[in-house]
Design a protein that fits this description.
16% helix, alpha+beta, two-stranded antiparallel ribbon, 5 helices
């Protein structure tokens, strides 16, 4: 518990910046869900009692950038980075609440389409690069995936050429499935992993001092639990659980983050998967 002292939030919505745990009359609450699926991650942030100028500014800006980090002093994790889809102002009692609903990858992820032909001998990696370009997200580890596709067994998937027309995320999913890969967008950047593999070798160790619930594990070796907000606790990362009833290495598949600067809520509920039992 030594590192988990002094709760901290670092929020930026367009030009509005909020740092620390609390300020007079100002309160921030959030709920975010991140998964390893291609569907965009989501986050809802509620800010209490913004100034009239700030509220007016957010209403005028189309899809402002939202960046949220939270955790403890010297132990923050980036909970969300994306674009606001909706901004709503409403009064509740003495407070004015501004609710910002966000999407990882922005609205373009929903509408990205491809209409392109690739000639005979086209390499899978080059097709992937062209598809990802339509999404409008940061490259992430795209180039590493392109090199792997162009030199591995999947390089000849489109040996006879192909014409792709339709929803770009669907075509990326089909390509990745054929090559034994899975993809998602994390904090505005592409993440491509080998199916079932972790994004990094190091693991976050969750012992009794960091667990807020007793982990449970299913017959498919999926573990569920609750822990503190902490650095690098993100889908695709590896965790090492050391509890009374569950012990072993698992890959984070889903994280539900929740926090409130003026309440007790400051944690993440997670689902993680281990190798088949």
């Amino acid at each position: 518990m030594g590192l988990l002292q002094n709760r901290v939030i670092d929020l930026q919505v367009d030009t509005i910046k909020i740092k620390g745990v609390s300020a007079p009359g100002l309160r921030v609450a959030f709920k975010a869900t991140k998964t390893l699926k291609p569907e965009p991650n989501t986050c809802e942030i509620t800010i209490y009692n913004l100034s009239p100028d700030h509220r007016a500014g957010l209403t005028k800006v189309k899809h402002p950038v939202v960046q949220l980090s939270a955790g403890y002093e010297n132990n923050l994790t980036q909970v969300f980075y994306g674009q606001a889809v909706h901004v709503l102002h409403e009064r509740k009692g003495a407070d004015i609440l501004t609710t910002v609903t966000t999407s990882d990858g922005g609205a373009k992820m929903q509408t990205a389409r491809v209409k392109q032909s690739f000639g005979a001998g086209a390499k899978a990696g080059e097709v992937l690069r062209a598809l990802v370009k339509t999404l409008g997200v940061k490259a992430g580890n795209l180039e590493a995936a392109v090199r792997k596709l162009n030199t591995g067994k999947a390089a000849s998937i489109y040996l006879e050429g192909v014409t792709l027309t339709g929803h770009a995320p669907y075509e990326i999913t089909a390509l990745c499935r054929s090559a034994g890969l899975e993809w998602s967008v994390q904090d505005g950047a592409l993440q491509i992993l080998d199916v079932g593999r972790s994004a990094a070798k190091f693991a976050t160790v969750l012992g009794p001092d960091l667990l807020l619930s007793t982990p449970s594990v299913s017959d498919k070796n999926v573990v569920e639990g609750r822990t503190f907000l902490q650095k690098d606790f993100l889908p695709g990362r590896q965790i090492q659980i050391k509890s009374e009833f569950v012990t072993g290495a698992f890959r984070l598949e889903k994280c539900n983050y929740q926090g409130d600067t003026h309440a007790d809520d400051w944690a993440v509920d997670f689902e993680a998967k281990g190798p088949p039992p």
